[in-house]
Specification:
Elements lengths: L4 H10 L12 H8 L9 H42 L22 H14 L9 E3 L5 E2 L11 E14 L5 E12 L5 E12 L4 E10 L7 E7 H9 L4 H11 L7 H12 L2 H7 L6 E9 L8 E7 L12 E5 L2 E10 L7 E7 L12 E7 L26 H4 L9 H13 L13 H13 L10 H8 L5
Parallel strand pairs: 1-6, 2-6
Antiparallel strand pairs: 3-4, 4-5, 5-6, 7-8, 8-11, 9-12, 10-11, 12-13
Length: 472
Amino acid sequence: MILTPEEHLRRRFIDKRVANPFPEQPWGDLAYEQGRAGVVRKDPRRRSMIRKIIIVSVILIMAWAVTGCGVHQKIQQQLQQSRAALDTPPFEINPPQVAPIVDADVPADIRMVTAAMVQKLRKDQKGIPRVSFDSGGNHYTPETRFDYRGFSVSDISINEQWARDTGRKSFDCRVAGVMLFSDQLGRRAMVSYTADYELFRNRIIIRNSAVRPVPPIFPTTRAFIIEGSEFKEIVGERPDFYGFYTGVVSKAHSMTPTLEERREREELQKMSLFDRIKRGTRIERQENFMVIFVMDRLTPDAELEVVVTRNPNDRASLAKPVYSDFDGWRVAIFAGKFAIDHDVFCAKAYYKPSPGVLPDNSEQVMVGLFSSEKDYDTPGSPTRADVRPASHASPEGPLALGRNALDPLKRYDAALIQSRLAELGFYKTVVDGLWGPGSRRSLQAFQRAIGLDSSGNWNMQTQLKMFFGTGK
């Protein structure tokens, strides 16, 4: 039986439930193109030839796959050779000594590019050997006046890194991450950076780069009370942040009571109200200043607000603070004529970053609560000048009482826990609200120090111990 081309294709594909291999062409046109000889007959030799063609095609595909893998391996070897040619440098840039920031398996070029970005932030013209910035590229650094001299790189997190062969005996690469700077005073600043660079066998050219400040989620605050004349003397010298901070700390009132003050307080607590009035203790009031420092660098659009009240639950402020900005490190100052330990008040510090910074889309968060009352609950009498947290100007807060349970899996709660661990000296890295292995190790160290089960698991017993005496 002689078949037309269209009938032949229909029996071969359609009747055997095989889809049209060329869906963009109708069956009629395809039949005409492939069968225009007019007659198609079953031929065993043709089937044998088709089998041979299929076998040869499979062999070629396998050979191509093997060759392709070899090419990929060769590219990886070239990349490793280029990186090996750049001897891994010691990550020492400028005094003070820089802490280890990256794992040993991070390639040398990434470490060198990161070091070059740090030098650029410090406005150091020396740079890093064999690393240069392309003068024709785009390099964005928002810092105009401030440099990071005197700050150590305490932590770096690499978020992105990749390399691509250019075919010109070089590689186009990118690295992006976050750097945390800190100084001897405890100030911290966090920036994100991105660098696109070309890696050659013995040099690196950074084509484009950008550095941007990262706002903190829960900044650390410290407060001090200083006598009026001492404060005016410090301000008269027009100091920078370092001089202002050290001057205030060195001359601030000690908020740790003496043994005599402790005994007097115990006697007063044993007296009746009538006996206290009859005793008539003389109170000497003088002009004092309370100075609140924010130790984390804030972005220009962030706000700091301090409210002074009789107790933490009041809203109307008794004073109107004055604010200063030292290159992003904020200071709030207010004055009054009062006697420490007798005229008790609270100073609440609120942090208002740009929208989207705080978890749960919150507009502000209280980052400091301080009292003018001395710390009678800490045993011993070490010399301490900073204002104690306002934990006993009123009853304990909901966290210390267990009324609100924190959940480390929630970013805002995790930031609160990290901040408290940092205040206690157990948490040494970025307060980012991300609960991971580092946070868990810090929690284990805290639990071990206070005699709890050091499992690293968050529970109510740990919360009560951690926030006791904070007023939170």
